[in-house]
Design a protein that fits this description.
alpha/beta; about 40% helix; TIM Barrel; two-stranded antiparallel sheet; globular; single chain; eight-stranded parallel beta barrel
Length: about 260
């Protein structure tokens, strides 16, 4: 069964410098997480960061990097992930200039190339969605186009909040990419008036019974908790990650 992980983008304001990282990563481990995804973490030598995580019992399970670095600086990207001891490479989103029918078609080739280059080194390549990929082009959503037209080696890091935000069904999309989703992004959505707000897992309106069933059937390796912003209680991001961890362990997930 997939293990729980924390997406460090949630804590980006607390991980800007090496001093911040040394002071605050122990707080993640203290919550109970045993794996983290690197995103928006301040600069630090990969071997040093790996050492800090090793000492805390934290696996670096995944990253978010730019597609250009994967394609144009492949050797450096691979070396960085080998230093991390991390095999899952993901991009956080599609470059803005590709968000058109022609752009998505062009990105299919880029994704295939990225997956092939990383695959040669034993790494995976995943695409992380937002809600704009649920816009339709020629009768298909852009996300369906990416799933259906890319090589099977291209993986998808389905983000539950953004699927819901775009009017989709998170469980159905997890099912659609079953076997191609080593990473899943778990986020909840809470309504505050007419506004959609990020919330700790289990504190919003997503159908976690269906999502969890789909996730367990998908053979995902990591369920990664992320909260882009903490505008509902608890507003402290460490407390929000802790609330999600408690609720997910009550749902049967383990670190």
């Amino acid at each position: 069964m997939a293990r729980l992980a924390a997406q460090l983008y949630t804590l980006r304001d607390y991980l800007k410098t090496p001093e911040d990282i040394r002071a605050n990563l122990p707080r993640v481990a203290a919550i109970g997480y045993r794996a983290v995804q690197l995103s928006a973490v301040g600069p630090m030598d990969p071997a040093e960061l790996r050492g800090i995580c090793d000492d805390l019992g934290l696996t670096i399970c995944a990253t978010h990097v730019g597609i250009e670095g994967i394609l144009n600086e492949t050797a450096a990207c691979i070396a960085q992930h080998e230093a991390y001891g991390c095999k899952h490479v993901a991009i956080g989103g599609l470059p803005g200039d590709l968000r058109s029918a022609e752009g998505y078609a062009r990105f299919v080739g880029m994704a295939n190339e990225a997956a092939a280059k990383l695959g040669d080194a034993g790494l995976t390549f995943s695409y992380h969605n937002h809600s704009f990929e649920l816009q339709k082009y020629g009768g298909r959503t852009a996300l369906a186009l990416l799933v259906e037209d890319t090589d099977p080696a291209v993986c998808f890091e389905i983000d539950t909040y953004w699927i819901q935000h775009g009017g989709g069904d998170p469980a159905a999309w997890i099912e659609k990419v079953s076997g191609r989703c080593p990473l899943l992004h778990y986020k909840d959505m809470q309504m505050v008036g007419s506004a959609q707000k990020f919330a700790p897992i289990g504190e919003g309106n997503l159908n976690w019974e269906r999502i969890n069933a789909a996730a367990r059937a998908s053979v995902a390796e990591y369920v990664i908790v992320e909260q882009d912003s903490c505008e509902v209680e608890p507003t402290d991001p460490f407390e929000a990650l802790a609330k999600s961890f408690a609720n997910l362990t009550a749902m049967g997930w383990t670190a």
